[in-house]
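User: Here's a chain of 548 residues. Predict its fold as tokens.
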Amino acid sequence: MNIKHNRKTILTVGCALLILISYSLRFYSIPIDGMTRTLRTAIYIFLYSIWAFSIQTRIIHNQIRKILLMIAFLMIMWFLIRNEKYIYALTFPNLARYLWYLYYLPMLLIPSFAVMIAKSIGLSYDEKLESKSKWIVLVALLLFVMVMTNDFHQLVFTFPDDSVVYSDSAYGYGFGYLLIVLFLLYCGITTIYTLYKNSRLLNRNAAIIVPILPIVVLMIYTLLICLKNRLVLFLAGDSTAVICLLYSLTLELCIQKGFIGSNNGYVELFMDSSLPSMLVNKDKKIVLSNNNSIKLDDQQIHNAIEKPLLLDDKTLIQCHNIEFGYLLWQQDVKELLDTIEDIEDSYSQLQLKTKIDQQNLITRQNIISLQQKNRITDLLNQKTSTQIEKIDLLLKKYDLENNKEKKKKILIETIFLASYIKRYGNFLLVSQQEKYSSSNDLVRCFQETFSSLQLLGVDCHFSIDFELQLETRSMIDVYHSFQLIVEQGFGNIDCIWVKAINQPAKVKLIVEIVSSQELSDCQNSVESFDRQDNNYRFTYLIEKGSDI
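Assistant: Prediction complete.
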């Protein structure tokens, strides 16, 4: 990490030094002034070429990377046009003027592309912007056409009536130039606002301040240039260099602050992960292991790659294929193994109970009849009867099954159903005593369900950063609805993400499920439902009590 940090520091200092040299050459006059200008142009082209190369290697999103490369190309083209303009300025003034007009191609397109980058934030890797989002480029091109045809209407630049040759040494501004300035102002403001709106950063309020500063400086600089402020023209009269530097600085700061996704920080994130894990190459050698992982020898790594490896009575090593090798991670399964053992013992007992005579069956029926007199127990049996029947069928199926993997899957499903019955019963008991209860009760229900599903390889996530008093009845209904959805897709679910959003009067609970099993018929008990291919979104609303 220190080497990487030092490399970044050296690169930053080197770029700053080259910019300082180029700025100094602006005030240095030698007999062949074209050599100084060409050297400065070469420095800037070198810098933006390096920047373009870094964009190619850092930026993750396909479309954003292409747009940033186009911006870098436009900046390089801008410097080439400027250099050629001053070469032909004296000999071919008309050619020099049209090269001056060409400045406005990158000047208009760069801010337009910046807006498109901002609108691309949040899209998936290969997802592209809708066609209607690209209208801003068309507006930029129309304004550019107005600039290129200025000699016929002088709406952008005005020249004195007695001018023999139109030149940038004596000109004024027309209404068209005002439109260009307003368009550039709109692009700058829209870029920052859209970046902020689309960003998923937790600290975006503080992070957005840094990229804003170069945009604000650029707006002030553009205004002073339009007013032909002498001090600004003397100190920073090279508008091409200033505008390109400020825009590239804004985009680079957006990358560094995380508004534009890049591949920076992945190693640090992996090392600090709370999940003990390691990366192994194709030769089954450890490439990287985080701070929490335990040491494995070559044989253990080989066995874990072949199938999940149980190291001891509580540690399970699992493996997933990745592009260059394998990802191995550790999971504490002691509680789950104890639960499985308890279920196996329970199964043995249930198996013995099947051999009890008719009198025992009558006794059991009498016990059930007595239990039904208890209102809570009756309600629990009513609500979980389907699950109880499934458990009975699964236990019978377990007795007949000889394949260990299938028996394990049957036990996992049995755990899943038994956990629901237990948690649902607890919820019913609480609901008889309290109208409102802690949201952690619902969290524990999801966590226990997830612990069962993860044994099948289901990727489960739960996101809630607050604890509230919620209506117990509503939480029971949500949990029951969620259970029915998962039961329908059991064995065909790839991923579950549960997210809670704290609203003024209610809590919105969003359940997203990726499943190959059709789940659309489960939408009746939810507040809203949405589906995109195999991605199902179920939304619930839960009444709030008071904050804890």
